[in-house]
Structure formats: C-alpha cells, structure tokens
Design a protein that fits this description.
Family: Belongs to the polysaccharide monooxygenase AA9 family.
Keywords: Carbohydrate metabolism, Cellulose degradation, Copper, Disulfide bond, Metal-binding, Monooxygenase, Oxidoreductase, Polysaccharide degradation, Secreted, Signal
CATH class: Mainly Beta
Number of strands: 9
GO molecular function: metal ion binding; monooxygenase activity
Number of helices: 1
Subcellular location: Secreted
CATH topology: Coagulation Factor XIII, Chain A, domain 1
Oligomer: single chain
Low-confidence stretches: none
Strand order of the largest sheet: 1-9-8-3-4
Catalytic activity: [(1->4)-beta-D-glucosyl]n+m + reduced acceptor + O2 = 4-dehydro-beta-D-glucosyl-[(1->4)-beta-D-glucosyl]n-1 + [(1->4)-beta-D-glucosyl]m + acceptor + H2O
Amino acid sequence: TFPSLTGTTDWQAVRQTVNHYSNAGLSDVTSDQIRCYTTTGSQEAPVIQSVAAGSSVSFTSAPAIFHPGPLQFYLAKVPDSQTATTWDGSGNVWFKIYAEPAIISGGQISWASLNKGSVGVTIPKNTPSGDYLLRVEHIALHQASNVGGAQFYISCAQIKVTGGGSGVPGPLVSFPGVYKATDPGIKVNIYSVSWMMC
C-alpha cells in the first residue's frame, strides 16, 4: 500500500484503499477501483496537502515494493465546483507525469523501484495551480503472463498545487478506460528473453 505522503500520517492526505489491511493488488482493469482503489462512499481523506509546482512529493510504501514492475504517477485537476476532498476523479481527466523505465541487462528485466520504502515524483513546474488528485500506481508483473495476472497497487493523494504555471496538461485519459487486460506491458511474460530481443 501507499498510505501516506512523506511528512503526514497514514490516510491523512491519502484516501484509504480497499487493501489497507490485506495488501492485495487489484487485477480487474475495468473496475472503478482502478482509479484510486477505494470503495464507494469512502473516497475522501481529511487533509489536502499543499505541494509547490516544480517540487517533489513522495509516498511511503508499506511494506516496501516487493514485486517486479513499473511505477507510474498521474494527476487529475479537480473541477472548480469541487475540492480534492469531494471529487471522485471520474471522467477523461487524468494525465501521466511519470513512467518508470525498465532496466534490461543480460537478458533480465528489472525496475529501480523494487525494494523501495518510499517513491517520489516531481510536480511539473508549469502545472496550473489548484486542487488535484495525485495517483501513484505500481504494476506488479510477476504473474502477468496470463490475462488478469497483472496486479495494480494504487493510492490517490489529495493535493493543492501552489505557484503553478499555465501549462495545458495532456493527453487526458480515464480510469477505468485507459487499460485493457490484454495490453502489451499488462499481459507480458517478464521472464521470457525472446520478447526483449525483438
């Protein structure tokens, strides 16, 4: 799980996830839970954490990441009529701000996030000021050779970007919607050398 932003307590600025006791990943990419891994009616956390545009923000990982696979971060701008504590993040509103590259060496594939107890991202300097949901996603690929085998570990933090710019973020995607269970990189055998040699 990713229960907190560095400097806050668990589930203070991060919405409590379904797996906060079990640590179980989500495998259904068509579920509404692929957005923030929360249950209906329990999406809000009590605090909105201020983060300056151009600065970094980190999630704690509890336990440390122990499955191989990539780490990604998305942002979604909260509509003016709502706040980060009330909005559910639905619609074509999410944009990716970081995707962790794979490391391929000697016929083996790995990711630098493995065994990390915290993971961070820089909020782009030109991100417009305002309330956002910040979504962290780790995709565990150790069983991903079968459809539905990839496991998603997700949290959404409630943040307020300050000192922002005039960027126009995009492309925008929706959760669910952006992924299919058969997508390359979601259905993949990371233990096979042959696909890496293509």
